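Sample pair:
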Amino acid sequence: MISDSPFFSVVLPNFNHGRYLKEAIDSVLYQDYKNWELLIIDNYSTDSSDEVISLYKDSRIRVFKIYNEGIIAKSRNLGIKNARAEWIAFLDSDDIWYFNKLSRLIELTDKNFDIICSNEYKHDLKRGVKKPLYYNLKSNNFYKELLLKGNTLSTSATIVSRNFLNKNKLAFSENLDFITVEDYDFWMQIALNNGSFGFCKEFLGEFRIHESNNSN
């Protein structure tokens, strides 16, 4: 049975990443913290994605289909809309989490933060090279710091309070001009609405680089 009150809703958008999708899903299933739901938002993939998803019979996994017209923000927003949990976590279908991702971040959720980000590794799959990525904002003016420093958070490393999003009516921008930088705009919106940012210094996952990354 799906818990009526999971603590985390994990939003995982996917399009034709069947070769990476199983590792992403497994990294959620193997979390040492178990009170979560996983919302897979599939953009009518034409590769092996459906076959991969069909392997899982876990009642905590829900699958949604959407034609997002190449706008990943639409998929993420559909996930947010259907989330049941207090906290929404994001995981791209070609990234992975380490087993203690959720258990470590849950320790920070009672610190009056509205958004929490951990460090992660940038993993170049072709070259087999991992590089540490450090995420942090140090000032009290998060909006100004984001404006000056650029995007200093990562979607797959971040969780956000659903109550905060609902209260401030925030979502990822579906404007075509924001494709691949919709997350940066999302953090800016949170900062503009006086959201409190928290950071975990541990490395709790991998942002994986390959030829078919949208950011490429």
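The helical segments are 18-29, 49-54, 72-82, 101-106, 142-149, 162-168, 182-192.
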